[in-house]
Please model this.
Amino acid sequence: MSCNLEKRPKNAYSVVSLFAGCGGLDLGFLGGFNYLDVSYEALQFRVIEAHDFNEKAIETYRLNIGEHAAVTDLTAIDVARLPSADVLLGGFPCQDFSSSGKKQGLNGSRGQLYTVMTDYMRTHRPKVVVAENVPHLARLADGEYLRTIVNDFEGAGYNFDVWELYAPDYGISQSRRRLIFFGIRKDLGYPPAPPKPTHANQHLPIEHALHDLVGVEDESVTNQSQYFVATRATSGGGQGDHSNVRGKVAYCIRANAKARIQFHYELDRRLTVRECARLQSFPDQFVFPFSAMINMEQIGNAVPPVLAHHVAKVVAKTLQSIDDGLVLPSSSCRNINLQSDLFECAAHAV
Ligand SMILES: C[S@@+](CC[C@H](N)C(=O)[O-])C[C@H]1O[C@@H](n2cnc3c(N)ncnc32)[C@H](O)[C@@H]1O
Model:
């Protein structure tokens, strides 16, 4: 294992992770890693099973996080065969919802995959559920898709809130917004407030994450020699051909960027795989073992581990309150009623 994740706190809460990808969300829950000289402590979670149907993503997961990950097509699974856990995680596929995807929504081939999570809730009754998707989901069909998903989740016996989190507010130098669906089993109370931003109005610019890599062209930092040499499109000013700007956060790292990954803020080339991993807050010890194309896709698909860690700390506190017999108060602001200013991550850096 590349990340030092073996030591788990005693009495850890069990977690089942669906659509786990290369493990960005799971790494945040586990904690126990360093990112840019900041230590993110090990949290009291133990992922007992992680599933994804992408063999290469699972290989990356197993290489870096642990052997509990399996290649599974979740459309074909009998959820009763999954283990029960305290926490269910699921970054259910977002391609059909993303602004850069085909926008087929719930009618798309992957639009219904969130129902695997609903089935798991009905069967195994986890205490807390955390699902993740793109903010654009909230804008589709005037919010109808989001309402349908939340209604289905709540119909399984849970109270849900939906948070829109902006990665730079948590010290991540990348313009990335994500929806977090936070659910608590109805007999246990209501979702708490979202994690408090650590860097509101103090966003860290791209060079904060990348400056020490300028001049590193070899594998002395793993994945730093991997980058695309594709030239800029001659017309259209295509997405992915932007140059980052010193002093600002980076553009969003897209999962479907193919070779069109944004350019460096100082050097005349596109970002390397390691630089993209850095902007997603993966520790340098987290290794991506495939071609640049596949590595970039895994990185772009991930929840930034640091962002996930902030969410995980709220989950840990919530579970502790439940254990202590405290009824969770209703959160003061229920975010489900869609904000009109939701932005899609592929838009612009601020
Ligand atoms: C947004 S990514 C999840 C990223 C992950 N949460 C992370 O933080 O790294 C969605 C994942 O769903 C997976 N997926 C899509 N359809 C699937 C299916 N039918 N069965 C299992 N996994 C599937 C994809 O391979 C992809 O890794």
The two ends are 36 Å apart (CA to CA). The longest strand covers residues 158-166.
